[in-house]
């Protein structure tokens, strides 16, 4: 990585299988929605000859946004892989969605990658979510570089964009290249280290991105950049492992360019220095420079630590490394359904070599609460493929560090793939909790089976989706990340021919007695032959919240035999489950059986169950029934600037503030108790209240009286 912008791209051929992990780079393109990730990827593909011409987002013709939902929403909604060859290096480019609803796809992309390329628009501010993501990458030491995109935009301001990057990401973010303009138009990039210009010429007549012409920088092009060049060199030297280098440089010694470039590449691979490359993807400017940074600066999978791995008994497996000859271990990072091939799994290999027609062990653990039960199975692989957007190209094998697709495997996103003889489990990556419920139902009884089957397919590829059949309301609820995520899930179900409709989410209320009451249950019927005879008297009194249910027998003189006492209790419990006012379960009451009558022939278990239910209903008609609503404890993490607004909003939601605590990094955790009915859309509303920076988690606490 020299700052020369040299072209190392092999044109005209698609990516080939490589047999050495050192010849692979796995890079996730990250940044907020609209920053220009997808168009940058298009420009790179066109510049390497991987595609004939660039597609457009408006027309839905980009390689990575072939999903119908992406075309409909005009933004990426899924993780997409596009490998390119740069010299002899295979660069796996992972285009990730920038919209917060699809953070699960972003997490999968980061799991599959060894480095991250942050794409920042020269015409827009850096959003807080991108800044937070940078901090996450920093905490795990992931190497990063920055692309300032959209320099062709009318509002583009490179200097301001660079200043925003340095303010958001830190002082180690320094330009490796700067824009070169002619008559106000961007024509190329100046490499600060070498003082050479990548001249892309007149782009107005270009049909596809072309490779630049390399030439020495002219005096007017070099003017004004000496300070930036000096800062770049000092920044690189400061990261050098040679502690004498800075003193020598400050003492006036001319440090060789090869030494500086070597230190630059090492610092980028270590994740301690972050080069900036300006680009205009629509005009194809900067693609060669970006590829050079990815190829020469970013580490290979062999230099990246593996996630934690254990055997099926949970015992950690030590000593694994990215070795094509090592034991087979991989992980499914994305699952799709192809109309011809069936389920297709995108697998990141961490160790070993995967070949077609071999037996593997598939295991999934840790996502049972989201509708993905634990499972273990031995399966035989069919064909292997290299994904290229939505298309699949046959691949003979895949080595440790590479990504490949496997068809007709029963695995789901997050599952581990390993050797049948030595099965292993890869520790799952952090998955955000879906917190926005959407209730759905089949349009007709005949559509219920189709809905169940389609939901299973959609959930298999989306670990951020949680499917729940609420046992109290009997509603089928999809827990989603937000409205956009819900729209994608519903669209995919409908694309499979499922007829469904959304309905209001029912909050699972409960009922209780607000005051003591008495009830008389009389179930007497004569219809010839054996009749039905049961009479019971009960007293009902409320218990404290969480008191549950108590049944007390105070029958004197055996007027009701013990067998029928139990029948009365069964009847009371059955009526409690059905409700006594609005159909919600009754809780927190004490029922005392104080009297009754029996008949020697006509009394029965069924009759006394009916009498018990009638007695509870009569008591309810004479008393005030209190509705109880579920209340959850919430912990909301927001930047300090939004604390006041969030606390005021909590009060408006009938919430009770229980405390605040500093979470570090200018963030505050706000704790409170909030009725569940006020949280149905809180995932979306908190995002709007905090400019996308706020997150929260919740846990059921108790039921409380509904305010009238």
From TrEMBL:
Disulfide bond in keyword set: no
Molecular function via GO: GTP binding; GTPase activity; translation elongation factor activity
Key words, A-Z: Elongation factor, GTP-binding, Nucleotide-binding, Protein biosynthesis
PROSITE patterns: G_TR_2 (PS51722)
Highest taxon of the lineage: Bacteria
All copies of domain Tr-type G, residue ranges: 22-302
CDD domains in UniProt: EFG_III, EFG_mtEFG1_IV, EFG_mtEFG_C
GO biological process, alphabetically ordered: ribosome disassembly
Pfam families: EFG_C, EFG_III, EFG_IV, GTP_EFTU
Listed PANTHER family: ELONGATION FACTOR G-LIKE PROTEIN (PTHR43261:SF6), TRANSLATION ELONGATION FACTOR G-RELATED (PTHR43261)
Protein name listed in UniProt: Elongation factor G-like protein EF-G2
Organism: Sinomonas puerhi
Organism phylogeny: Bacteria, Bacillati, Actinomycetota, Actinomycetes, Micrococcales
């Amino acid at each position: 990585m020299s700052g020369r912008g040299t072209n190392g791209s092999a044109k005209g051929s698609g990516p080939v299988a490589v047999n050495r992990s050192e010849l692979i780079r796995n890079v996730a393109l990250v940044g907020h929605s609209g920053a220009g990730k997808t168009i940058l990827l298009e420009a790179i593909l066109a510049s390497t000859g991987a595609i004939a011409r660039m597609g457009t987002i408006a027309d839905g013709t980009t390689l990575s946004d072939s999903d119908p939902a992406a075309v409909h929403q005009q933004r990426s909604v899924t993780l997409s892989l596009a490998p390119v060859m740069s010299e002899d290096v295979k660069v796996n480019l992972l285009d990730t969605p920038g919209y917060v609803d699809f953070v699960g796809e972003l997490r999968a992309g980061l799991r599959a990658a060894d480095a991250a390329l942050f794409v920042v628009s020269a015409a827009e501010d850096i959003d807080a979510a991108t800044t937070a993501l940078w901090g996450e990458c920093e905490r795990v030491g992931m190497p990063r570089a920055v692309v300032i995109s959209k320099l062709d935009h009318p509002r583009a301001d490179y200097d301001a964009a660079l200043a925003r990057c340095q303010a958001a990401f830190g002082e180690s973010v320094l330009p490796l290249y700067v824009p070169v303009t002619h008559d106000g138009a961007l024509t190329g990039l100046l490499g600060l280290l070498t003082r050479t210009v990548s001249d892309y010429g007149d782009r107005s007549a270009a049909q596809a991105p072309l490779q630049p012409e390399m030439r020495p920088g002219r005096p007017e092009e070099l003017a004004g950049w000496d300070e930036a060049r000096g800062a770049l060199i000092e920044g690189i030297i400061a990261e050098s492992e040679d502690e004498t280098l800075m003193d020598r440089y400050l003492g006036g010694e001319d440090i060789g360019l090869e030494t500086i470039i070597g230190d630059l590449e090492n610092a980028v691979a270590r994740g301690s220095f972050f080069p900036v490359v300006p680009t205009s993807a629509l005009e194809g400017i900067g693609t060669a420079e970006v590829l050079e940074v990815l190829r020469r600066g970013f580490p290979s999978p062999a230099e990246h630590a593996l996630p934690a791995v254990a055997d099926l008994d949970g015992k950690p497996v030590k000593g694994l490394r990215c070795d094509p000859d090592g034991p087979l271990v991989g992980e499914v990072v994305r699952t799709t359904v192809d109309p011809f091939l069936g389920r297709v799994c995108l697998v990141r290999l961490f160790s070993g070599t995967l070949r077609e027609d071999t037996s593997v062990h598939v295991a999934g653990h840790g996502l049972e609460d989201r509708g993905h039960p634990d499972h273990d199975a031995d399966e035989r692989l069919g064909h292997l493929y290299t994904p290229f957007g939505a298309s699949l190209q046959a691949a003979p094998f895949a080595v440790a560090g590479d990504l490949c697709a496997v068809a007709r495997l029963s695995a789901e996103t997050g599952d581990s793939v390993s050797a049948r003889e030595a099965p292993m489990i890869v520790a799952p990556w952090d998955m955000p909790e879906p917190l926005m419920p959407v209730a759905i139902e089949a349009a007709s009884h005949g559509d219920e089976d189709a809905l169940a089957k389609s939901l299973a397919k959609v959930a298999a590829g989306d670990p951020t989706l949680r499917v729940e059949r609420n046992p109290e309301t009997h509603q089928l609820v999809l827990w989603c990340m937000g409205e956009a995520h819900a729209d994608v899930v519903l669209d995919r179900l409908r694309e499979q021919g499922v007829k469904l409709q959304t309905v209001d989410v029912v909050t699972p209320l409960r009922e209780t007695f607000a005051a003591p009451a008495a009830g008389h249950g009389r179930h007497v019927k004569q219809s010839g032959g054996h009749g039905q005879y049961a009479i019971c008297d009960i007293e009902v009194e409320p218990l404290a919240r969480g008191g549950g249910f108590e049944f007390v027998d105070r029958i004197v003189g055996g007027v009701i035999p013990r067998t029928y006492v139990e029948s009365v209790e069964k009847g009371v419990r059955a009526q409690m489950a059905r409700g006594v006012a609005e159909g919600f379960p009754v809780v927190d009451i004490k029922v005392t059986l104080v009297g009754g009558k029996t008949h020697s022939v006509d009394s029965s278990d069924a009759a006394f169950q009916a009498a018990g239910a009638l007695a509870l209903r009569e008591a309810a008609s004479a008393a005030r029934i209190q509705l109880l609503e579920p209340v959850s404890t919430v912990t909301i993490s927001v930047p300090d600037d939004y604390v006041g607004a969030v606390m005021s909003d909590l009060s408006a939601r009938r919430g009770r503030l229980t405390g605040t605590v500093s979470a570090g990094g200018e963030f505050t955790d706000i704790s409170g108790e909030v009725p569940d009915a006020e949280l149905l859309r809180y995932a979306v509303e908190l995002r709007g209240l905090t400019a996308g920076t706020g997150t929260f988690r919740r846990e059921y606490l108790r039921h409380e009286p509904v305010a009238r």
